[in-house]
Design brief:
Elements lengths: L24 E5 L3 H7 L4 H22 L3 E8 L7 H24 L2 E6 L7 H13 L6 E9 L1 H15 L9 H4 L13 E4 L18 E4 L9 H12 L9 H7 L1
Parallel strand pairs: 1-2, 1-5, 2-4, 3-4, 5-6
Helix pairs in contact: 1-2, 2-3, 3-4
Bound molecules: farnesyl diphosphate.
Farnesyl diphosphate binds next to helix 1, helix 2, strand 2 and helix 3.
């Protein structure tokens, strides 16, 4: 084993989060905007505009229910493949939302961060993101993370590269606890609950590492219709899960 190897992997045990009836962290794939609009004979982008109202509502619901982290998949690394008009609309929608919503976020003690590869955003957009993050940096009621130009594989790779640059020792064995702080959201508890709206049941390259132990909740509800009732159903489903983290049911019962 190389001289500067720390604990071998089998000695690393991720702390099991305390059992909780309300998730500390919810991650959502907001799907179904396009279909919501098409069903009303509206252009797809009308669904995205309506989806923004659901973003606001989801943040408010987290504040009400005491969920401390909310991470929303707004634009994947793959979404650049959409028609240019739709991409352009989404960029304008994000930019406008950053301009308009930051005061409200400060008022509600929300910390905003945008996770993803920002390099492809326009300089104006990058500046607006940096300003919004700086203005909300002290928010402590809700960590609101917007994944934009984000991909789970990109996240893991950028974490590995940051680690290599921080400590370029060539023969070092890396462990989970080395990588974790380099990942996007490495300072937050991992998501307890993953929700995907819109009826599809896949992860779509969202938080691949961070969702390892999340409970998954899929709903047919389209994102613009994701309201207090749909949110409560997801929380109810979460409460009914037995989170074992590798242990047996009998062990959990004995520990109660
Ligand atoms: C997926 O639905 C949704 C998106 C790719 C964009 C999500 C954007 C928003 C909810 C709007 C604003 C968000 C922020 C954070 C400002 P889809 O278009 O794939 O729907 P479909 O599957 O019905 O076509």
């Amino acid at each position: 084993m190389p001289a500067h190897t720390s604990a071998p992997p089998h000695q690393f045990h991720r702390a099991i989060p305390p059992a909780a009836t309300v998730p500390r962290h919810i991650a959502i794939v907001m799907d179904g905007n396009g279909r919501w609009a098409q069903r009303r004979h509206l252009p797809r982008v009308a669904g995205h505009a309506r989806g923004l109202a659901s973003v606001r509502r989801a943040a408010e619901l987290c504040l009400t229910h005491g969920v401390s982290c909310l991470t929303l998949f707004a634009f994947s690394s793959e979404n650049w493949r959409r028609p240019p008009d739709e991409v352009d609309f989404l960029m304008k929608l994000f930019h406008g939302a950053l301009d308009r919503e930051v005061d409200e976020m400060v008022r509600h003690d929300i910390r905003l961060r945008v996770i993803g590869n920002r390099a492809r955003f326009s300089p104006r957009m990058q500046a607006a993101i940096a300003e919004a993050e700086a203005r909300t940096a002290h928010g402590s009621a809700l960590n609101l993370s917007i994944a934009a130009d984000y991909g789970g594989r990109w996240d893991i790779l950028q974490a590995v590269n940051r680690l290599r640059h921080a400590d370029p020792a060539p023969d070092r064995d890396w462990h989970e606890e080395d990588l974790l702080p380099q990942l996007c959201l490495g300072d937050l508890p991992e998501p307890d609950l993953f929700i995907r709206t819109g009826g599809e049941q896949r992860i779509s390259n969202f938080l691949l590492w961070q969702l390892a132990y999340a409970e998954f909740h899929f709903t047919d509800c389209l994102w613009p219709e994701f309201d207090a009732h749909a949110f409560a159903s997801a929380l109810t489903a979460f409460r009914q899960r037995e989170r074992r983290f590798g242990r047996t049911s009998a062990q959990l019962t004995a520990a109660r």
